[in-house]
Specification:
Elements (H helix, E strand, L loop, with lengths): L11 H14 L10 H7 L18 H15 L2 H9 L20 H13 L7 H18 L18 E2 L5 E2 L6 H20 L4 E3 L2 E3 L1 H15 L24 H4 L3 H4 L5 H8 L31 H4 L3 H16 L25 E3 L8 E13 L2 E12 L5 E2 L2 E5 L5 E2 L2 E2 L5 E3 L6 E2 L4 E9 L4 E6 L2
Antiparallel strand pairs: 1-2, 3-4, 5-6, 6-7, 7-14, 8-13, 9-12, 9-15, 10-14, 11-12
Helix pairs in contact: 3-4, 3-5, 5-6, 5-7, 7-8, 7-13, 8-13
């Protein structure tokens, strides 16, 4: 069982030091520094956890380099860049070639981020050291693509490349492997952007590689996660026709107090619900579980925490990865976003509409507005926000909408499978009197036509 939070910091003096330094740092401004970073770096050793505390990290030198690299990116202050150069060797930034990017190991991220400085031509006197950082970034990327040479990585985990399952999923370790796959895929997509912007290639021991290959591999990991695998299962809970339904998550597996009509204590939640074979009463939408084993096998069992536990460190990188895949290269089955056949328009004004069902006399209003617009190529795109309002004195449920002349993506509604027909999300099945629900879509040209098909 996990230790209590009081054991996370076992040294009271260390904790007191952290508190005192944080109080000093809170009075400083980021850009002017006020010796902020000096305070942290001077006391760096206090953070080197070496006991058996919960979620104890291996080292923190990568965290410090990661923070400094981002401070440089955010402020442009050469002080921070110089720190990453002066400490490149001592802190492992140019010494460690990584085969993972995770909550516990940021080196690959540091190396990719500092490679961007070099690729932008801003290395200056630090060019030679930044090239060493890029060599390690290349090592990570080449390992993902299995282009680092070496021996048979399928049977030798210690090889120069990252292992993959028979179905093509990156496999780093047994416990919650998908967090490593999603983080690596996101980082590869970012590095692909950096290389493409500089018109550069990835240099691997097995030959040069175009940046597109990194994005293609990242896409393959996303496809696997979303269901293109031997199990035919989406490991993103709530997405697709088949996904994990017994997630190792207390909020998902214990019914709401409004269903139970009584509170559930901590011990009772474990004793009564942890080992139940029934599906979760609450769907934890968007959570990425730990995923399958090295042979693509997955056991949908709440007690199988190594595979069924969701993590923020796994889910968070998917946001960036999916964003990139939705606007990046348009091959591989992904459609070009905001694509439209309408001619360029100069200006459009959104207009409100009201639907009054004859059978009840209760109006459902659609309040349209344009919240943003921008040019892309020769076309102006508009971000349309629509507020659905139940202006009646009674609740409505199972609302079905018909949306015509829609040529771009839409958020906040779910397609029903019928042409031009949408419904409210599962968590918003009912609109009470005077309640509203918003959805957003993006397209060029005039607003789409929204109307009511049915409701109860």
């Amino acid at each position: 069982m996990p230790k209590s939070s009081s054991h996370l910091l076992t040294n009271t003096e260390d904790y007191t030091l952290i508190q005192s330094q944080m109080q000093k740092l809170s009075t400083c401004h980021l850009v002017t520094r006020c010796n902020t970073f000096d305070l942290i770096s001077q006391h760096f050793s206090f953070s080197e956890f070496s006991d058996n505390s919960l979620y104890c990290v291996n080292v923190l030198k990568d965290e410090l380099l990661w923070a400094v690299a981002w401070l440089h990116r955010a402020t442009g202050d050469q002080y921070y860049l110089k720190y990453t150069i002066d400490n490149a060797g001592y802190m492992g930034g140019t010494g460690w070639g990584m085969k993972e990017f995770s909550w516990d190991n940021k080196y690959a991220g540091v190396q990719v981020l500092l490679s961007k400085v070099l690729l932008e031509g801003k290395g200056g006197p630090y060019t030679s050291t930044l090239k060493q950082y890029q060599m390690k970034a290349d090592y990570f990327a080449c390992a993902c693509l299995k282009k680092n040479g070496g021996y048979n990585i399928q049977t030798t985990p210690g090889g120069y490349n990252i292992r993959t399952t028979p179905g093509g999923l990156m496999y780093v370790r047994e416990w919650n492997n998908l967090q490593y796959s999603s983080a690596a895929a996101f980082l590869l997509a970012v590095y692909s952007d950096h290389l493409s912007a500089a018109n550069a290639k990835l240099n691997c021991p097995d030959g040069s590689v175009q940046p597109q290959a990194l994005l293609d591999f990242a896409r393959s990991q996303a496809d696997y996660i979303l269901g293109k695998n031997r199990q035919g299962m989406s490991y993103l809970v709530g997405y697709g026709p088949k996904y994990p339904i017994r997630v190792h998550h207390r909020g998902a597996s214990v019914p709401s107090i409004f269903v139970q009509r009584s509170s559930v204590s901590c011990v009772q939640g474990f004793d009564s619900w942890y080992r139940r074979s029934q599906a979760d009463p609450n769907v934890i939408y968007g959570a990425l579980v730990g995923g399958p084993d090295q042979n693509d096998n997955y056991s949908d069992d709440r007690t199988n925490y190594e595979q069924s536990e969701p993590t923020l460190s796994g889910t968070a990188p998917l946001v960036g990865l999916f964003a990139k895949l939705s606007v990046g290269s348009y091959g591989g089955g992904y459609s070009k976003p905001y694509q439209t056949t309408k001619q360029q328009a100069t200006s459009y004004k959104a207009t409100p509409t009201t639907y009054t069902p004859k059978q009840s006399g209760a109006p459902i209003e659609f309040l349209h507005s344009i919240t943003a617009n921008w040019m892309a190529g020769n076309t102006r795109y508009y971000r349309h926000k629509v507020i659905i309002k139940n202006s009646s004195q009674k609740q409505i449920s199972d609302l079905k909408l018909k949306i015509e002349d829609l040529s771009g993506p839409i958020w906040g509604l779910i397609p029903t499978g019928q042409k031009n027909t949408y419904q409210l999300p599962r968590w918003q099945k009912i609109l009470r009197a005077e309640q509203t629900h918003d959805f957003v879509y993006v397209q060029g040209g005039p607003q789409a036509k929204v109307s009511v098909l049915s409701y109860y």
